[in-house]
Amino acid sequence: MMQTIFNTEKIFKAYFDCRKNKRKTRNALKFEWNFEDNLQILLNELSNRTYVPGESICFVVLEPSVREIFAADFRDRVVHHLLINEIIESAEKHFVYDSFACRVNKGTHRAMLRLKDFIRKVTKNSTKEGYYLHLDIKSFFMSIDKGILFDIYQQFIEKENMPQKWKEEMFWLGKIIIFHNPTFNCWRKKSLVNKCKVDLSGSVPFGKSLFDVPSTKGLPIGNYSSQFFANLYMNKLDQYIKRELKCIFYIRYVDDLILLDADAKVLTAWQKQIVDCLKYSLNLEINSKKTKIEKIIKGIDFLGYYLKPTHILVRRKVVERFKNKIFELNKDDGNLKKIMAVRASFFGHVKWANARALDTA
Questions:
Q1: Going along 22-109, which residue ranges are E strands?
Q2: In the 8-state DSSP scheme, what is residue 233?
Q3: Where are the beta strands (DSSP E) in 219-270?
Q4: Which of 101, 204, 296, 322 would be 130's cystine partner, CB 3.0–4.6 Å?
């Protein structure tokens, strides 16, 4: 591997990786028009350490829940890919197997199937009683402590068997990305609701917006870098649960954690230890309203599914959202392409559950 991350080969790879899913956006098209010169300018800024993140677009989405999204400028997305490309292979070796968010060959469906397998093993194929602990992190992305995150990141980089020059570049660029506050330079875009542009910023619950938290906290939802750094941050808890608590049946998707065991008392003890680990190691809290210990036979609500020892159901809210979306599309313009895309997405979700009858809808 080359000693510097700032070279033509790497920035071109980062660019082509970045544009795979963003090629049709306005910023991507503008950048692509003269991409070779734009990449050279960006490379010079990085090499000279004069790079500064640009303007983000801030908007609000309503489904599946109200969330504030920050879309980084396209050139900044290239930089995110450049950094993560350098360490993703090594990071994957450090992450636990059962962390399923934003990782290659993982995702929601694999997470659900893994939980299904855990349920089968804990209940001995539905012949024994089992319990689960469901934990949710309170305002996860908004609560991430940037100082703690950067310490974790520095420790990770320092352990890499790479030249000091490479490490210094990774420290510098990682610090810029982690501590960047997009609220200082963003365009607040209105959302399209019933063909009307509406300002939905007031609909974001307090504490769920970067505008509500101090600049020392919070990562912008919507950035590729935030997804990676969230996994790096939570890996400390993952390792604690697997190595210290010795929990065999543990699964995490972003801030949604499930632990299973045959003994409810074990889960109760683990809950207290996890709360302490979150508080003292990561400066995070659990959402007490969404945290519970229950019998597995009652069903586990996870990633849009409802899992029981004998079968899997699709959550009612998922079905309702699908019906409402189809209704709105038909009411607006009946765009067949959009309708088919929504339908394909929905039935791609449904096919993993015991809900085949819905396929005729």
A1: 56-61, 67-71
A2: H
A3: 249-253, 256-261
A4: 296
